[in-house]
Automatic annotation (TrEMBL):
This is Rieske iron-sulfur protein. It comes from freshwater metagenome. It is a multi-pass membrane protein. PANTHER family: CYTOCHROME B-C1 COMPLEX SUBUNIT RIESKE, MITOCHONDRIAL. GO terms for molecular function: 2 iron, 2 sulfur cluster binding; metal ion binding; oxidoreductase activity.
Length: 355
């Protein structure tokens, strides 16, 4: 069995493709080679050209990581955020988001692949056994660990393989830069965008999925319907995103008028039909679990519970704010419409909400 330690000489960092050499004192403290485990020399252990080729491959992986980091930085500045492209199996998506995700993902991946290739081809691969020590090491045990670390650093070849060392340092030096430029996405502040939805006066309420207009007689007492504004598809096609759809989602619930304890505005219901935002005020999850007898609405994410008969007030769970209510009525043809937009922001709290 081969042992990669030579205790008779001192390791020379200027010479490549040599086995690490440590002192006798340090070598006696290191883990011993495992007994009964066959060790087979790799080609890079016996062929200097193969070792040099593997070194160039590792350096190429680290260098490629740096290249993709540069692509990330350039794309962040050069590609307009408004640019949309069609991608197979994904659909319409932002070109900048796609390039940023792919380039940064490859930058991380190539560092990992390079490190694995380095370890498998160039670092020592002898099976070693080390007895488990006590939880609180003594001073000599700590010194032993430091000695093992020093030998490991020598074994890795980071001192002798300058090409790998330089490309790795370059890749690691550039790796944090995307995080720095992404700080730009913290601003500017969204101002009033988070407080607004597409709901407005006389806008028809339609069923989700089918987008059919709704009459009061379509909703029996005790029923719950997921609904949207009638222009939601046009807005989606125009903006190529689902942001407005998420903010505008509502629930229509019908109960007996005498069961309604309170509302967020005077007579905001229509014949016992109430409209509330479908987005939980805790973490933004969609809500649709309705208990007919108690008029309670349960969020499936964190069990926040809201009383729809009492202005959508929270009665249990982490949700601290009530579900915003949408005032509704009917038009001349008898279809349900909004009387106005939401009077308070929908969804979870945010720093500019003010209440």
């Amino acid at each position: 069995m081969t042992n990669n330690f030579d205790i008779n000489n001192t390791f020379d960092p200027d010479k490549e493709n040599q086995a690490p050499k440590v002192s006798k004192e340090v070598a006696t403290k290191l883990p011993t080679p495992a007994k009964g485990v066959d060790h087979y020399l790799r080609r890079t252990d016996t062929d200097p050209r193969a070792a040099k080729r593997a070194e160039r491959q590792v350096a190429a992986l680290f260098g490629s990581s740096s290249l993709f980091t540069l692509i990330f930085l350039v794309s962040f500045v050069a590609i307009p955020r408004e640019l949309k492209i069609s991608v197979p199996f994904i659909g319409i998506t932002g070109a900048q988001n796609l390039v940023l995700g792919v380039s940064f993902g490859l930058a991380i991946l190539l560092i990992g692949i390079g490190a694995i290739h380095w370890a498998k081809k160039l670092m020592p691969d002898v099976e070693m056994v080390q007895e488990r020590k006590e939880m609180k090491p003594a001073d000599d045990v700590q010194e032993e660990a430091l000695d093992a670390f020093r030998v490991g650093a020598t074994e890795s070849g980071v001192g002798s393989r300058k090409l790998i060392r330089r490309t790795l340092l370059g890749a690691l030096a550039m790796f944090p830069l995307p995080f720095v430029v992404m700080l730009r996405d913290l601003g500017p502040a969204p101002k009033g965008e988070l407080s607004k939805t597409v709901w407005k006066e006389d806008l028809h309420i339609v069923t989700d999925i089918t987008y059919a207009k709704i009459r009061p007689e379509d909703i029996p007492v005790g029923n719950l319907i997921s609904a949207m504004p009638e222009n939601i598809l046009e807005i989606q096609e125009e903006d190529h995103n689902l942001n407005e759809r998420g903010k505008a989602a509502i629930l229509l619930v019908r109960m007996r008028p005498e069961d309604i304890k309170s509302q967020q505005g005077p007579d905001w219901d229509y014949q016992g039909i109430l409209a509330f935002s479908k987005i939980c005020t805790h973490a933004g999850c969609p809500i649709a679990l309705y208990e007919q007898r108690s008029h309670h609405l349960l969020c499936p994410c964190h069990q926040s519970t809201f009383d729809l008969a009492d202005s959508g007030e929270p009665i249990f769970g982490p949700g601290a704010r009530r579900l915003p209510q949408l005032a509704i009525t009917v038009d001349a043809e008898g279809y349900l419409v909004a009387r106005q937009g939401f009077q308070e922001p929908v969804g979870p709290s945010f720093w500019e909400r003010g209440a």
